From TrEMBL, chain A:
GO terms for molecular function: structural constituent of ribosome. It is found in: Mitochondrion. Belongs to the mitochondrion-specific ribosomal protein mL46 family. CDD domains: NUDIX_MRP_L46 (cd04661). InterPro entries: NUDIX_hydrolase-like_dom_sf, Ribosomal_mL46, Ribosomal_mL46_N, Ribosomal_mL46_NUDIX. It comes from the Eukaryota. GO terms for cellular component: mitochondrial inner membrane; mitochondrial large ribosomal subunit. It comes from Poecilia reticulata. This is Large ribosomal subunit protein mL46. Transmembrane segments: none annotated. Residues 56-151 form the Large ribosomal subunit protein mL46 N-terminal domain.
TrEMBL record, chain B:
This is Large ribosomal subunit protein mL48. Gene3D superfamilies: Ribosomal protein S10 domain. Its main location: mitochondrion. The lineage of its organism: Eukaryota, Metazoa, Chordata, Craniata, Vertebrata. The chain crosses the membrane at residues 26-47. One of its GO terms (cellular component) is mitochondrial ribosome. It is found in: Mitochondrion. The keyword Transmembrane applies.
Amino acid sequence: MAAPCRKMASRSYSQLLCCFSRTAVGSGACRRFSVTPIDRATPRASTAADRATSPWSLMAAVCLQRLPVITADCSPIEQRFKQMLQQMELEKSMLSDHELRLMEDAERMSRRQADDYDSDEDLGDQEIMMTQDLEDTWEQRLKNFQPAPRVRADVDEDLTSVQRCLTDSLVLLAEQQVGAEKLWLLPQAAWQEGETLRRTAERALDSMTAAGVRATFLGNAPCGVYKYKLPKAARTESSVGVKVFFFKAILVDGTPGSAPTAPLLWLKKSELQKYLKPAYMMNVGRFILNL
Amino acid sequence: MFERFLPLDPLEANCTDNPMLNCDVLLLHTVYVNMFLSFCFVSGTAAMNERQYRDMPTHGIGRWRHLLLKQPKKKKDRNQQKELVSATDTAYGTLNVTVSGYDMTVVEHYSQYIHNFCNRLNIKVADSYALPTKSTEVLLMQEQGNKTYVDAVLKTHQRVIQLSSLNASLCPVFMDVILKNQPEGVQLSVQEHTEADYQARFKARPELEGLVAQINQ
């Protein structure tokens, strides 16, 4: 496979400025994410003479992931441990400024209510706002705040929605025609002359999904490869099989503008097994991290 | 003091070609030594057990460091800038992974996690430092009046991990794991390291700048 490797090495290196942020429930279901490429030199075109003909045809696929939006729930042991640590921290901690002020106020109140109270003792201006009142206003404001629900059962059931399962990372699958049958695969496209494999993967993504979906590719190097031989009937002298190279990408903007061209699914790694073929699943499962 | 008891090197004095005679001389020498030793034990053990240091003829026999040429002392280079590695076709150059957020424990733990992860993947970490904390005061308008009052002070902490070079094939794996482990409320940013970034860490010196401006005028 001299051709694509040389292509990837000759492509001059694009510097990426990546900025990822993770704040509490933003506008969409995805994190804010920006990538600014600094350098992008044009790749040198290799001559036709040094490309060796090979019976394997090449394809590039994209493994588009939507990262988790909120933290996963703690398991029972984790919850108990967390509570214990919080309790220990509370017991070891010193009093904060707010708590000290509360204590001072309580002391002053008790002094005023005592029988031998001397008003001259009360030096300094009386605070307009007592500390206890401050605390009450804060409590009131907290009660008025309504956070969005963490888990919505109906959205979780919908496999095509990108906002399902906010605690897990999801992978995009598309149903594609391969040979005679329709299979669920990671979106892939055939490699064409004069383009890099990463460009092929980008093209695959653009063709499968709607226009509004933006993704950032994590690098020029593929993360996995899957090769399969064509069935004996379809094999010829020049095409024995296909090699598929996978590229990892992160979803930036989740809101699709128009309807997708092919049926899409957003699945967790545990659900992938039901849709992918076993050999394919074994290969793909190696680079999809279950974090 | 002990030379009185030792004969003046009997071997040299009685050196003849006859080996037989030399043997006799040796025997004589050992007899003398034995006599000397017995004499010592008779007089007292202090003489034998005294430590021989500077008086010993062989004192300083192994010294060699005084024979080397003196090397000039290097000045303390703690504040020197580490060399910037430039990007090649297969690897990134010097990268800055900045972790910032409001909660210091979370930010510090996450930066420690990234550092340990780099060590595990054998990615060379050039530097690991903290940028100064920025305080943000949140002022809210009072409900009754027009005055604003200080509601909260938010401190933004920043930690930077500088990687000297990152292999392009390792980059997707590295970024994927780091993104998936990003905690809530923490911003991550991966950028190239520039000279300007390094200079921004130093405090501005207004007197020096004033003097320089005066000189240039």
